[in-house]
Amino acid sequence: MIGLGWTSETATVPDGLRLHGDGPIRALCAPTAVSKTARDRLGMQVRSFDAGIDLLPIAPSHQISSQQAISMMRTADMAPIITQLKTKGQLTLSVQQPQIATDPISDGRSWLAARKNRHDVRANQADLLHHIAALAGRPVSPLRRTNHCVQCDILVERSEADKLKDQLAHHLHGSSGLVEGVISITGLWPPFGFADLQRLGASAA
Amino acid sequence: MIAPFEIAAADLQDTLTRVADAGGRVQIDPDRVENDLARLVLGLMEFLRQLMELQAIRQMEHGYLTEEQEEKLGTTLMRAEAAIHDLAAKFDLTPEDLSLDLGPLGRTI
Amino acid sequence: MGVELHLATADEVLCSGDDRLVDLVDGLLHHGVVVRGELWLTVADVDLVFLGVDLLLAAPHKIRPADQPT
Questions:
Q1: Rounded Cα gap, residues A38 and A35, in angstroms
Q2: Contact A112 B57 (CB under 8 A)
Q3: Which of A52, B17, B95 lies closest to C39, judged by CA?
Q4: Contacts B7 to C, Cβ<8 Å
Q5: For A14, which of A31, A161, B45, B69 is 20 to 30 Å away at the CA?
Q6: Residue B26 in contact with residue C41, Cβ under 8 Å?
Q7: A107: which chain B residues are within 8 Å (Cβ-Cβ)?
């Protein structure tokens, strides 16, 4: 079995998934056959989360066996973060990167200047995300970059997620001219951006 | 005076985590020793090169560099990037396999 | 140009083949609990060397006096 995360739930889990452990916190695990890839694991996590299970999720890119997940649960004090994340999920904000035309460059100064431009563009995207995230008035994860966009996550109560989504959408439509870009608001996701084991001050060797 | 610029250990840790597989392991396979070692070493090299690039940009922005220094720094960093990518390609590694972009994001601001 | 806004649920994102949304998912995959900075060199499933990282890299001006910026 593969670990998907930890939970204080004792409720019935979706078909095929199992809770391991007998303490107040248990490891949620899925059969290896259906959780081979990072995307498979993400899918299972979303399924459990949508079924109402509050989850301290393991990063989907990490394949952690159920035994490892159980031993991490015993060595790290997860109760505080699990309590903190209970009944919460995240909306993920994403701003698409504008295409930057690049001419072939041979001299060092132009290369450095081109890199500076790239950094400036990214700084603007970061500002835009910070601006939107500030509107939410909720905890925000550090920014991260993928191949085509910059993202951050907003931690929100499950019950308030739809309302927040609407509020942000409404505000963004109303403020055209002040902000621009291709923006996505997706979710509700399990709170990946806030599940930082290091914040627990515990190593899970 | 350039604003304080620190790379926390966590950034390097992130790079190492990227270089490793899902279980935090760099599996060194007898049949592909070169590739597996290259992934580790080139990942670290690219990490350090990106740090130098960021710092060069900051110094340029603050006007601390002469034209000549800008030219030399730019050329060197550009060639270093090309060299790392060339080496990576020889080991069937893409730039994405190696790099953690340190853009003006998160802790690196 | 103004704002082009897209809203989607987690399910819609996961089921979509749209490049933009695939990229969005890629951004999520590395987040969650990770065993950070723990790196093992492993041969034949035997863990041989553990690299723990605890070091700080600082810009030169942090080390040099402020009046010698380069």
A1: 7
A2: yes
A3: B17
A4: 56-58
A5: A161
A6: yes
A7: 71, 74-75
In which domain, by residue range, is A14 found?
Answer: 2-86
Residues in A closer than 8 angstroms to C10, CB to CB, are 46, 49-50, 186-189
Please tell me whether residues A136 and A66 are part of one structural domain.
no
ipTM of the complex: 0.80
Same domain, A145 and A59: no
Q: How many CB atoms lie within 10 A of CB A36?
A: 12
- On whether the CB atoms of residues A188 and A89 are closer than 8 A, the answer is yes
Chain B, chain C: beta-carbon pairs less than 8 Å apart: 81
Share of chain B above pLDDT 90, in %: 28
What does the pLDDT look like over A119-131, one tens digit per residue?
888 888 888 888 8
Task: Summarize pLDDT for A128-162 with one digit per residue, the tens.
Answer: 888 888 989 999 988 887 777 889 999 999 999 99
**Is C3 near chain A, with CB under 8 Å?**
yes
A163 & A182 share domain: yes
- pLDDT one-digit tens code per residue, B15-73: 666 666 655 667 778 888 888 788 878 888 888 888 888 888 988 998 999 999 999 99
Inter-chain CB proximity B105 and A63 less than 8 Å: no
User: Taking each helix axis from N to C terminus, what angle separates B33-61 and B9-19, rounded to the nearest 10 degrees?
Assistant: 150
Q: Higher pLDDT residue, C39 or A69?
A: A69
For residue A82, the distance in angstroms to the closest alpha carbon of chain C comes to: 12
Same domain, A25 and A104: no
Task: Report the residue from B9, B25, B59 with minimal CB separation from C70.
Answer: B59
**What is the distance between the alpha carbons of residues A47 and A13, in angstroms, rounded to a whole number?**
10
Question: Mind listing the pLDDT tens digit for each residue in B5-30?
Answer: 455 555 666 666 666 665 566 777 88
Two tokens, residue A71: 């031993």
Nearest to B9 among C34, C53, C60 (CB): C53
Choose one of A62, A86, A110: the last residue of a domain.
Answer: A86
Stated pTM of the model: 0.77
